[in-house]
Predict the 3D structure of the following.
Amino acid sequence: METKKLVLIFIFITSLLFIWEGWMRERERLDNLANGTLVNDNNSVSQQGPDSPPIPGDALVSSQSNQDRASGIDAASASTGTPRNLPTGEQIKVITDMVIAEIDTAGGDVRKLELLKHPSRENKEIPYALLHSDATQTSVAQSGLIGEGFPTHKTQYTLETKVREYSLEADQDKIEVRLVAPRENEVQVTKIYTFNRGSYVIDVRFEIDNQSEEIVRPFAYFQMLRDSNPPAGATMMIPTYLGAAIYTEDEKFQKIQFSDLDKNKADYPRNADNGWIAMLEHYFLSAWLPPQKAPREYFAKRQNDNLYTAGVISPVGAIDPGKTTSISMPLYAGPQEQEKLAELAPGLELTVDYSWLTVIAAPLFWLLSFYHEWVGNWGVAIILLTMTVKLLFFPLSAAGYRSMAKLRLVTPKLQRIQEQYKSDRQQMHQAMMELYKEEKINPLGGCLPILVQIPVFIALFWVILAAVELRYAPFALWITDLSSPDPLYVMPLLMGISMFIQFKLNPKPTDPIQAKVLQIMPIAFSIFFFFFPAGLVLYSLVNNILSILQQWQITRLYGQPSSNDASTKKKAKEK
């Protein structure tokens, strides 16, 4: 059997399995939502609402002090509002060179965050909204304090000034927005947002002024609230991750699947003094980045009505009477730019989802970025990367093509053997092995080189799929977005034609069923690649063209019958 064709069939089936797996995950999520229940550790339905602050665990409480936990628990047990009907107050607009943010005085939450340098999928004139809350989708950044009388994300704040819109001026490096909570128990809390020029990092800080006569020990929590609805423009044909993720030095990077939270089976580190927690979606993330070597407790849970939270609780420490202290937490809300993420926090670059082939995909992306810096076009960079990979595997692929070229010469003899021993498969197999030995042909010689290249192909698939740098990156002519399918379907059709030419250069299959399958494959692949990113189709097309040229040259050199074979064939015809 033709090993190369079998490998291509394997790739095709594997790709279909990717889509099937994604479809099954989506079906499971919808089934869980239809059931509408969440089982907790006590096998009861969770009653805690989405507006409830989290509860600090024993380990975190003991790390701060032996304070009375009742205040925290009382605050955490409260529940008001409904998931799609979050309390609203005044809207504060903040415009920088990177984002447009909207902060609601109800809870002091970031209810909307648009990325100015990244257009939406539906309309290039509109910035992509990473955070937003409306009737169709919810994704907001919430924070508050845990303790009796302290403000939470349902507290009504007031602005310290009357300014409702802030804009970063040319002579400014940052914007500061100060929100004041109602004074409770002689403790004044101010929530401060700081937006910096040229940065997607927003600093969220609580200033706590204790004018009471007692020591207070609040906890601060910072969380992302999100539903499981995919971002606008997402498609089930392309498998991408949507859910929470966490990183610690001990456990490294872990995804927290929404489906695991639905079943209350999520396994992730709770207590640590390092790491971060985030919500991920295709190309973008929102991550809380606690300072290193500071105690914290991570949490992730499903709320009611298809809402999930993931966040961190940190102890503020003891605040003596008459003293003021503060606690801050950086929030990164922006694109998954691998090099920049690595500079922000350890392991944050791992949020770029290369699936299980990160060890191969990461170097490929580095090389792709290098070529882009050189030529300034991501499409040309993909072509150069394809040529580099092809050159790297040239010795292996050349050996495979030589084996196939020799196999092509003996195909008539193989057909005669099959005809002669069609009723005795064991004798047929023995005769074929003798022929291979006589002609010095390794029947598996073309298989290993192709198998070695499969992980690279899949890794390149994930690089092109996951790299936000390719989002809306133009190539040439009608290809204006390498991360989207070819709008005219020209490249998928050309790729199908190139596959057809490749098959014609290979030995003709002796099995009629296999021959039929190989005739259908170029058509099937063309249709299949209609839905793939243009960047991936470009890679496949260029790779096929280079393979055709290489195979044609090797077949010309090694695939022609020798003079002895030609004379023997001539004598046979004369007889």
Notes: The chain has two domains: 3-17+361-559, 79-228+241-353.
